[in-house]
Design goal:
49% helix; 16% strand; alpha+beta; 20 helices; five-stranded mixed beta sheet; single chain
Length: 538
């Protein structure tokens, strides 16, 4: 909030005195806290640092050693510059010893060739200081108002960080105390470079105060937390000493993030939010593989030179299987349970809720890992964690094929979701389900969006569906029981809760409407496939 020595040199009263920097130009960016008029040589003990000293030199010695000592004492006291009027003691130039000492300490030494009213200089500089302080206070007030509004509005961490980057002009990263990246805004810089090898770099940066600048790393670090429960750090990448305004921004942002977490305790954690964002972008193919890899690595989930397996975890109860009944609260609990299971099984994984029906996870296994053994261990942990969640419920765990590149990660995640959906219709006691386990139903789930498959089902079942709709009959259900029991009419009649005579009459009507014989294996197979497609798309 203070002007620099260079700023002072632009003042009209200084320029009228024909100011010349004769030494110590390297220190012109030092901040001027105050102006002090001093004619005596032993003034240093009376100063506090940050002063710009004005002198005519009338009481200063000519002895080179004494002049060197004079400069050394001023530099030691924290003086930021010395202005000497060349009128009363020295006239055309300053003593060489004075100039050399100032250069050695990078202490700006400025001469005024014309007589100058020092009181006018003092008033001008103080005016500059006050104006800078007022501007800084106004800027701090605007920062306060901005982040208060974000806090009241319940802004998500990404929105808070976006405002930090905009207001400070600096890249910003929100990390856990374990040095995993939760969110960031690169402020126009390369995000991959920003988060590359983040955890290792962050571990080397330790600070003593809640807000501190680590000069070696070029990081302004603020601890994030409330009520004695610190849970993260906010890092502004700041190559030079941060301005007061930037410190205020960091601290207000940390407060907003802490309040958001307190208010959102019943919502998904910041870690789940970060994972969900990345999984959504991966599934939507909205981000390059290189960017996904860099960001996942910053979250502690390496994707390069790894075995990647998509996992879908969803409630297996009849009502929760319907998207409208799988509440976000249930899914958030299930996501936390899945993440806990991954930690217990010592598996690196991205875990998040990306839709209204399931939890998705992308497992990252080492090339040497036995994927089946890991999946058995993980699925066991998931079932145990889900059963002990706040709203315990049985779940289905489904996995996709194992892939070895980030570009194929989307495929294994989609496969896992299809397997989970298919497994709802054929529940069993498996710890987890693969594509092989759901067989024909699983293949049809993968092909469900193919128009040709949909058209096939419509051709096979169209007349029967139309008959049921027009007359309120249940011929499709009769056919479904028949196919489900492998053509065993007695078992199908029992499952349909009908007498054999009535059920056989319905089957005869099915044959009549469709113009097929249910004694023909190929016809029954075609109808069974069409029924499965109808269920999947229904």
């Amino acid at each position: 909030m203070y002007p620099t020595v260079a700023d002072v040199l632009t003042l009209p009263v200084i320029r009228q005195g024909m100011a010349t920097v004769v030494a110590g130009s390297a220190g012109l960016d030092r901040r001027v806290r105050w102006v002090h008029i001093a004619e005596i040589a032993d003034i240093a003990p009376l100063l506090h640092g940050g002063e710009l000293v004005l002198t005519t030199g009338i009481a200063l010695p000519d002895d080179p050693a004494a002049l060197t000592t004079y400069v050394e004492e001023l530099a030691g006291a924290g003086v930021v510059g010395v202005v000497v009027e060349l009128v009363r003691h020295w006239h055309r130039e300053l003593p060489t010893a004075l100039v050399e000492a100032a250069d050695a300490h990078e202490l700006p030494l400025i001469t005024l060739s014309r007589e100058t009213r020092f009181v006018a200089v003092t008033e001008a500089v103080v005016g500059l200081i006050v104006a800078a302080q007022v501007a800084e206070l106004r800027a701090a007030e605007r920062v306060h108002e901005t982040f208060t509004a974000l806090t009241v509005a319940g802004a998500e961490p990404a929105e808070v960080l976006r405002e930090v980057a905009r207001a400070s002009g600096l890249p910003v990263v929100l990390e856990t105390l374990g040095h995993d990246v939760l969110a960031y805004d690169a402020a126009g810089t390369d995000p991959r470079e920003l988060v590359a090898d983040w955890a290792a770099r962050s571990r080397t940066v330790t600070v003593d105060a809640r807000t501190s600048y680590h000069a070696e790393a070029g990081w302004l670090v603020t601890v994030v937390g409330a009520r004695g429960n610190d849970w993260g750090r906010l890092v502004l990448v700041c190559p030079v000493e941060p301005q007061h305004r930037q410190v205020v921004i960091a601290e207000r942002a940390a407060s907003a993030l802490a309040v958001h977490r307190l208010v959102a305790r019943d919502r998904e954690s910041l870690e789940r939010h970060a994972h969900r964002t990345l999984l959504t972008e991966l599934l939507g193919s909205t981000t390059t593989a290189a960017d996904i890899t860099a960001r996942a690595s910053a979250l502690g989930v390496p994707l390069q030179r790894r075995q990647l397996v998509g996992v879908s975890v969803r409630p297996s109860t009849t009502t929760a299987a319907r998207p409208s009944m799988a509440t976000q609260e249930v899914l958030r609990d299930l996501a936390e349970a899945t993440a806990l299971a991954a930690r217990r099984a010592r598996v690196a994984a991205l875990v998040g809720v990306v839709d209204d029906i399931s939890v998705r996870a992308l497992l990252s296994l080492t090339p040497q890992a036995d994927a089946d053994a890991v999946l058995r261990r993980l699925s066991k942990e998931i079932h145990q964690a889900a059963s002990s969640a706040p709203k315990a419920l049985p779940v289905i765990v489904a996995v996709g094929t194992t892939v070895d590149s980030t570009s194929d990660a989307r495929r294994t995640l989609i496969e896992a979701a299809h397997v989970a959906k298919a497994s709802l219709r054929t529940p069993d006691d498996r710890q987890y389900h693969r594509l092989d386990d759901v067989r024909l139903r699983g293949m049809l789930h993968l092909l469900a969006d193919d128009d040709r498959v949909t058209a096939f089902a419509a051709r096979e079942l169209g007349p029967l569906l139309a008959r049921d709709a027009a007359h309120g009959s249940r011929l499709v259900d009769a056919l479904r029981h028949f196919c489900a029991h492998g053509g065993n009419k007695s078992a199908a009649a029992s499952a349909a809760h009908m007498s054999r005579t009535a059920y056989y009459q319905q089957l005869a009507r099915v044959e009549q409407v469709l113009g097929v014989s249910l004694d023909d294996p190929e016809s029954v197979l075609s109808l069974h496939v069409a029924l499965l497609v109808h269920e999947i798309n229904g």
